[in-house]
Each structure stands twice: as structure tokens, then as C-alpha cells.
């Protein structure tokens, strides 16, 4: 399976970012040699994408000069879509990586990542590093979502303590909201007052944000969640893969055992707890999470889900036929109440996607040579973007 994150080489350290008032805008570093094929730094991987409109969008990630290079360098990458083309907007050799991007408008947004609570703010047409002294110093932010210019959430993992944290942006400050969850992967809010966070790394993690508090649903099933999208308090979708297990659900680890237990009884995951089971898509109807039968082979994996409305959405990932692949991009389209496989016939994997409309969208991923690729969906068909 192809990796969808830029990892720090063993023994390397990430530069601590600081952001005094009036921090300089991030730009393209002329010292970083670009790959002439892609127009981005070597071995670039884009981890997140958001299209503000059909004509404006952003993708963020990281690059790595290569672990076999004695003078190894790596850092962040930001790409901008405008005037019909994806171009490099900023990069650096900080040793960090961006994992998520969220814009509440064409002129304001945030990106997060790193192993040093790396937060970037987009304002005035520029990306700048923002200091967040209230956050743990080694917090790696995996997901950021803004619900307005003045409020948003992020989540990540402290790479030294192993603790996962939720982070709230309000009144111009980022502050930590303690949680007992572990292995968080994805965050989605449908409003300032409601949303979901999911994850799992050997166990299942699931929590709902409602009426100003995060409520832990416990560990109700042997499922590792990879992505979640909340449409409304009564409609949400998630992707995940089964954790091989012949055991029953583990007890909740939150302070309120009784509350989590009552939620656990509302789950209806209709699949065996052992044996070969393929990737899963799950739906929340306001009362319970239910597994949606897909009939996919066990070697298909859905990594990311996004919904355009209650009636349409996309799930993307990869398919690795046995015994050794190669991997092929995979997309599922939700329409007319059912998920249908879209055959892309492109070697590689898809990591994330964003759709400004039902007829226009983009997906990011890696091709078979492990180079970053953009796929464009337009008028019912996918095509590989060429610069």
C-alpha cells in the first residue's frame, strides 16, 4: 500500500516555527530544485485539497529530497489552482509537512501539520506561519476545519507524549480541548455547533460534537476510521477498514461509561467480526451508525469521503490486487441512494478530493511512479491533469 504522508527521516528534527507579529509571507524558495515533470519539489505528496470554487483552490503537503541523499532536505509544499493551472505557491526546507487545509472563503483560511504545532493562516493573499503558544510544542495537526473566519477546529497527535488533542479556534486564539481519544484521523463539522471526529489505530475512535461538548461514543466496533463527513446532525458518512478481531466491542474509555454504553447499543454494524472483509463505508442516520454493503474485494481501501449533499458524494482510495499489486486509483460515486464503483484505470492511489459543484471537482494522489498527481472531474468524467 502506498503511503499518503511525508514522514520525517530517521534522526531528523523539525525546525520550530515561530511567528512574531508581521511574520513574513511564505514564498517559493529558489534554493529548492523543482522536478521538471511536476513543477514541484522532489517526491512531493499532497495530503489535502480544498476548492473554493471551480476557478480557485489549494493543495498542501510536503516534499523529501530522498533518504538516500547524504544532504537530505524536506519541507512543506503549497500549490494554488488559478487561471486553469496548478502552480507552486510556496515551499520551504523546514523539515515539516502540511496535512490539512480549510478555507472559509476565497480570502481566508488555515492549514496545519508538522511536528511543532505548525499552523498557517491565509489572509491578504498570503500564507503566514502563526504562533500558537497555547498548544503542545510537538503537536502534529492531522485535520483542520474552519466553520467561519472566527471559529474552527483542528485535531492531532503529540508525537512525544502520544496524546491526541482537539484544538478550538475562537476569539483569535487556538486552545486545547482535552480528549481521551487515540489515533484520530479525520474531523468534520456541519456547523459551529455540530460535527464528528473519528480515527483508530488498532481500535475504533468516534466522538460527536453537540451543544458545545465532545461526547465520546466509546469503541463500539473493530473498525479503524480513516475519514468522516458530516452533512447535518442526522446525516453523516465515514470510511474505514476492519481490524482483524474475533472479539466483542471494547468498553468505552471516557469518563461517562454509562453514556457511552447507551450509544454503543445504538450501533448496527452488520458484518462478521472475523474473516476477510473489505473496506467499509458507514452511514449515520441520527440514531445509529450502520455499515453500508459495498461488495468490494478485500484488497480495496477507501481512504477519504466527501459529500456534496445528502444525495451525492464521493469516496476515494486504492485497489491493490493480490499478490503484489500494482495499486490502482479507486473512486466510488454516491447517487440515487447507492455507491457505484467508478473505474479510473490509473496506476497509483487517491488521497483526498474536493468538489465545488456536482459537475466539477479535483482529487489528489500519487501515480505508479510515486509522483504527485491531480485528477480533474468535469461533466461526468475523470482525467489526469497535465501542466
**Radius of gyration from CA coordinates:** 20 Å
Sheet having the most strands? 7 strands, antiparallel
Please provide the ordered H/E string of secondary-structure elements: EEEEEEEEEEEEEEEEEEHEEEEEEEEE
What is the terminal-to-terminal distance?
27 Å
Report the mean per-residue pLDDT as an integer.
83
Q: Classify the beta-strand content into a percent band.
A: over 45%
Q: Tell me the number of helical segments per DSSP (H or I, 4 or more residues long).
A: 1
Strand order of the largest sheet: 21-22-23-24-25-26-27
Low-confidence stretches: 1-21, 245-277
Structural class: mainly beta
User: How many strand segments?
Assistant: 27
Structural notes for this entry:
There is one protein chain. This protein is mostly beta strands and 387 residues long. It is built from 1 helix and 27 strands. The strands form 6 sheets. Strands 21-22-23-24-25-26-27 form a 7-stranded antiparallel sheet, with no helix packed on it. Strands 1-2-3-4 form a 4-stranded antiparallel sheet, with no helix packed on it. A 4-stranded antiparallel sheet has the order 5-6-7-8, with no helix packed on it. The longest helix has 8 residues, at 257-264. It is globular. Mean pLDDT is 83; it is low at 1-21 and 245-277.
Amino acid at each position: 500500500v502506498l503511503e499518503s504522508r511525508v514522514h520525517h527521516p530517521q534522526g531528523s528534527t523539525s525546525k520550530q516555527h515561530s511567528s512574531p507579529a508581521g511574520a513574513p509571507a511564505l514564498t517559493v524558495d529558489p534554493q529548492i530544485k523543482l522536478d521538471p515533470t511536476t513543477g514541484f519539489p522532489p517526491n512531493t505528496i499532497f495530503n489535502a485539497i480544498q476548492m473554493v470554487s471551480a476557478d480557485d483552490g489549494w493543495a498542501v503537503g510536503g516534499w523529501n529530497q530522498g533518504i538516500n541523499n547524504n544532504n537530505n532536505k524536506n519541507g512543506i509544499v503549497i500549490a494554488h489552482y488559478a487561471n486553469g493551472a496548478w502552480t507552486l505557491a510556496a515551499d520551504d526546507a523546514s523539515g515539516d509537512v502540511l496535512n490539512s487545509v480549510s478555507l472559509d472563503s476565497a480570502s481566508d483560511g488555515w492549514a496545519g501539520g508538522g511536528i511543532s504545532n505548525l499552523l498557517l493562516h491565509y489572509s491578504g493573499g498570503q500564507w503566514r506561519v502563526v504562533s500558537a503558544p497555547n498548544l503542545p510544542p510537538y503537536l502534529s495537526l492531522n485535520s483542520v476545519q474552519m466553520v467561519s473566519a472566527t471559529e474552527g477546529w483542528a485535531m492531532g497527535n503529540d508525537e512525544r507524549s502520544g496524546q491526541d488533542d482537539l484544538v478550538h479556534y475562537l476569539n483569535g486564539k487556538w486552545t486545547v480541548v482535552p480528549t481521551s481519544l487515540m489515533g484520530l484521523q479525520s474531523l468534520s463539522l456541519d456547523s459551529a455547533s455540530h460535527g464528528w471526529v473519528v480515527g483508530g489505530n488498532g481500535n475504533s475512535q468516534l466522538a460527536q460534537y453537540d451543544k458545545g461538548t465532545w461526547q465520546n461514543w466509546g469503541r463500539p466496533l473493530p473498525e479503524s476510521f480513516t475519514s468522516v463527513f458530516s452533512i447535518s446532525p442526522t446525516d453523516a458518512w465515514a470510511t474505514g477498514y476492519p481490524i482483524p478481531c474475533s472479539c466483542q466491542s471494547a468498553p468505552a474509555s471516557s469518563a461517562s461509561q454509562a453514556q457511552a454504553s447507551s450509544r454503543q447499543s445504538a450501533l448496527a454494524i452488520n458484518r462478521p467480526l472475523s474473516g476477510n472483509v473489505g473496506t467499509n463505508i458507514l452511514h449515520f442516520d441520527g440514531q445509529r451508525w450502520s455499515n453500508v454493503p459495498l461488495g468490494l474485494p478485500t484488497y480495496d481501501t477507501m481512504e477519504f469521503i466527501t459529500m456534496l449533499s445528502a444525495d451525492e458524494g464521493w469516496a476515494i482510495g486504492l485497489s491493490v490486487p493480490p499478490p503484489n499489486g500494482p495499486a490502482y486509483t479507486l473512486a466510488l460515486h454516491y447517487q440515487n441512494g447507492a455507491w457505484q464503483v467508478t473505474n479510473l484505470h490509473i496506476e497509483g492511489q487517491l488521497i483526498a478530493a474536493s468538489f465545488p459543484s456536482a459537475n466539477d471537482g479535483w482529487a489528489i494522489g500519487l501515480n505508479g511512479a510515486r509522483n504527485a498527481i491531480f485528477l480533474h472531474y468535469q461533466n461526468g468524467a475523470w482525467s489526469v491533469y497535465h501542466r
